[in-house]
Amino acid sequence: MNVTSWNCKGSTSKGFSGLMKDMMKKNNSTFVILLETHISGVKTKSVIRKTGLKGSFVEEASGFFGGIWCLWDDNDWRMKVLRTTNQYVHMKVRWCHH
């Protein structure tokens, strides 16, 4: 069980998805929190799909500001979103022991 949190300050570059996958593999991360993603909508869904993680919660960016993504392997984690704002995501997190 490894969790990675990254203030990525933008995820719009072409190489971002590959960089993120490499980081996840290196750290054996199955739960990733990305801050300041600076993108939203269809582009967000495209980048998340490339990670291979099936669970996700996104607090959309506002223009080119903010953005919080919580991504996880839904075989390892159970999440319940309790409260969100554009500044934070409050979740109940449970690791499913295998």
Reading the helices and strands in chain order gives EHEHEEEE
Q: From the alpha-carbon coordinates, what is the Rg to the nearest angstrom?
A: 13 Å
Give the proportion of residues in helices: 10-25%
- First-to-last CA distance: 10 Å
What would a concise description of this structure say?
The protein has 98 residues and is α+β, with helices and mostly antiparallel strands.
Question: What do these coordinates show?
Answer:
The chain has helices at residues 16-27, 42-51, and strands spanning 3-7, 31-35, 55-59, 68-72, 77-84, 89-95. It has 98 residues and is of the alpha+beta class. Helix 1 runs parallel beside helix 2 (42-51). The longest helix is centred in the first third of the chain and has 12 residues, at 16-27.
Relevant terms:
98 residues; alpha+beta; four-stranded mixed sheet; two-stranded antiparallel sheet; globular
SSE order and pairing:
Elements lengths: L2 E5 L8 H12 L3 E5 L6 H10 L3 E5 L8 E5 L4 E8 L4 E7 L3
Parallel strand pairs: 1-2
Antiparallel strand pairs: 2-4, 3-4, 5-6
Helix pairs in contact: 1-2
